[in-house]
Structures are given as structure tokens and as C-alpha cells.
Amino acid sequence: MAIDDLWYLSKRGSDGERVPSKRHARGKRWRVRWTDPNDARPRTELFGKLSDAQRHDASVRNDISRGRYVDPRAGTVTVAEYAQAWRAQQLHRDTTASRVECSIRLHIVPILGELPLNQVKPSHLRTWVKDRVEVLDAVTVRSVFGVIRAMLDAAVLDKLIGTNPCAGIRLPEVDHGDMFVPTAEQVHAIATELPDRYRAAVYLAAGCGLRFGEVFGLEPEHVAFLHREVTVAQQIKRVGKRGRYIGPTKTRTSRRVVELPTVVADAVASHLERYPAITVALDDESGKDLVHRPVKLLFTTGFGTPVTSSAWSVVWRSAVKRAKLPATGFTLHSLRHFVSA
Predict the structure, then answer these.
(1) Same domain, 104 and 122
(2) Tens digit of pLDDT for each residue in 264-310?
(3) What is the pLDDT of residues 243-254, one digit of tens each?
(4) What is the CA radius of gyration of the chain?
(5) What's the half-sphere exposure (Cβ side, CA atoms, 13 Å) at 19?
């Protein structure tokens, strides 16, 4: 590394005095030279004051010696550009990939997208949080901010920025008190108010702790009445414009065998008597390979099609209203907490 005075030549005149260069008294006088440790290419930066050049020289030396060096020009890629490249490299499951894509497209790029990575400051992120809490709930704000944090962590590892500006940003608190956990009487009440073909779904969620996709992705073979067990091996899913399909459980630990209480077993048995499982041809990604197979669904709509979340929400809200239960904070997912309540 070196600091060069661009206003004078390195050699002196015959009289021993310094010889002015062609750019004497024009432009920035001091040039700092160093070699980028990442690609061995020469780098330079110009300064008007010697003190600024000396500080930059010392800073670069220090960063290189500690392995923290970041090329100042590397971070000029915009947040929008890096976000798309970063997303394409992630090994996300389809539902996570869809959530990340929506987070970037709807909440990150419109606000932060034009900023170069090396210009994103904590103040920008605090402003972003303040803006998003006006239109999103606390859980969603924290989820989208997690995408920003992960993306900028990757930018640090890629040596595009020196540090992640997400550190220390205050996020909205999630009020877990808003979650409604029903009593046994209220579980029966909501089941009674639902259409008969869906009542057993309530008992599976409340009695076995199954998620929405796990309930409506069940096949008769997963319910062992003799051993009083339910095997949770898959879930029914839909991502973007893609149709319904069978996918793996949310996480590896979500693949499990749970106890089948008598009340739930009776409800499922009664359901199968009235509404025998209907076979639907679906893609199945729950195993190692993608297959297209006939899936015998325990629950279907009156048209013999898989139950969609949008259609279910209409049926659910109507039943909740008739059962005089909380209109907010109470979903089929809430019934999972009845097991541990």
C-alpha cells in the first residue's frame, strides 16, 4: 500500500526541488493504492486532503490484516438486484420460497430496492419498520425483516458490505395474548356449527394437534383406529398459481405419530361412514421423488375436490359467528393449542 502525491512527480529537478506534474493544482491530490486481497487486483482511491488519505490507508491496512476487507465498489449493487440473486440461491421449500418472493416483491424492493447495499443504514431500516407496521401485523413485519436480515448477512459473507445494518433494530412486539384457546364446550360448539362434512376436522385439529394442511391432506391409511394413532406424514399445499398437491410436513419433526383420542376416533369413523374418502389425482412431493398418484383424501368439498384455504375461511368465519366465538384470533390453527391448554 502507498500514498502518492499526484501534484508532483516522484523525481526532483536538477535544483533538487520537486517537479509539478501535469495535473498540479487540479483535482484531488492524494491517491491511496492497495491490492484487493479477494482478487489480487490493484485498487485506488483519491482524496483532497492528506489526512483523509492517511486515515483511509490505515483503515484498509487494518481491514486486510483482520480479514475484514470489503471492496467499496462491491456494495454498489442495489438491494433489488442482490435480493433477486440471493433468492435464486436459497434452498427453500416451496412455501418458504413463495413467502420470501412475496416479501421481496411487495415489502422490500418498493422501499429499499434502489439503495446500493453499501448505503443501507440502520436509519433506513428503522424507517422501513415504522412504515410497515402501519400496514402489516407484527408477525408479518418480523417475518419480512427476517428476510432482510438473512439477505444482508449473506452480503457480509460475500464481502459486499462490512457489517449488517440490521443489528439493534427494534421490531414490534407480538401480542400472544390475542390468541384464543377454546374450551372443550367451545370446540364442540364450533364443530356443531360447521357443515357436517367438516366437523371431524375440528376434532383432529383440537384432539391431535394437526395443522390445516395436515388435516386436509390425511388419507384413511394414516388413521389407525385399532392402535389409536394418527400418522402425520404429509400435508396438502398450494403455492402461487400452482394447483393443490401433496407435500412434506412443515419440518422434519412435524412428521410424527400422535395419539388418537376416543372422541376424535368416533368423529372420524362417523365421518367416513357418511363421506367415504374420495380419490383425487395429485402430484405428491412428500417422498424423495415427485410422483403423480391417486390420493384418497379424508376430507373434500361437496364437489369432491381438495379443500382450499380460501373456501375454508368462508365456511369457518360463518361457523364462528353462529357459535358466538371471537371473530379475530381464532382459526383452525388455534385449535392446535387446545391439546396443550
Answers:
(1) yes
(2) 999 999 999 999 999 999 999 988 888 999 999 999 999 999 998 88
(3) 889 999 988 888
(4) 30
(5) 10
186 and 310, same domain (yes or no):
yes
Distance between CA atoms of 65 and 62, rounded to whole angstroms?
5
Q: Which of 325, 302, 311, 309 is nearest to 190 (CA)?
A: 325
**188 and 156 in a common domain:** no
Cell 529537478 -> residue: 13
Instruction: Answer yes or no: do 156 and 85 share one domain.
Output: yes
Q: Which domain holds residue 9?
A: 2-69
Which region holds residue 246: left if phi is over 0, alpha if psi is between -120 and 50, else beta? Answer: beta
Number of domains in the chain: 3
Print the SS3 string covering the chain: CEEEECCEEEEECCCCCEEECCCCCCCCCEEEEEECCCCCCEEEEEECCHHHHHHHHHHHHHHHHHCCCCCCCHHHCEHHHHHHHHHHHCCCCHHHHHHHHHHHHHHHHHHHCCCEHHHCCHHHHHHHHHHHCCCCCHHHHHHHHHHHHHHHHHHHHCCCCCCCCCCCCCCCCCCHHHCCCCCHHHHHHHHHHCCHHHHHHHHHHHHHCCCHHHHCCCCHHHEECCCCEEEECCEEECCCCCCCEEECCCCHHHCEEEECCHHHHHHHHHHHHHCCCEEEEEEECCCCCCEEEEEEECCCCCCCCCCCHHHHHHHHHHHHHHCCCCCCCCCHHHHHHHCCC
State whether 38 and 13 are in the same domain.
Answer: yes
Do both 184 and 317 map to the same domain?
yes
Which of residues 174, 201, 231 is at a domain's end? 174
pTM of the predicted model, to two decimals? 0.60
- Residue appearing with cell numbers 375436490: 305
Residue-wise pLDDT tens digits, 319-333: 999 999 987 778 888
Give the mean pLDDT of 202-226: 95
320 and 245 part of one domain: yes
316 plus 218 within the same structural domain: yes
CA distance 249 to 286: 8
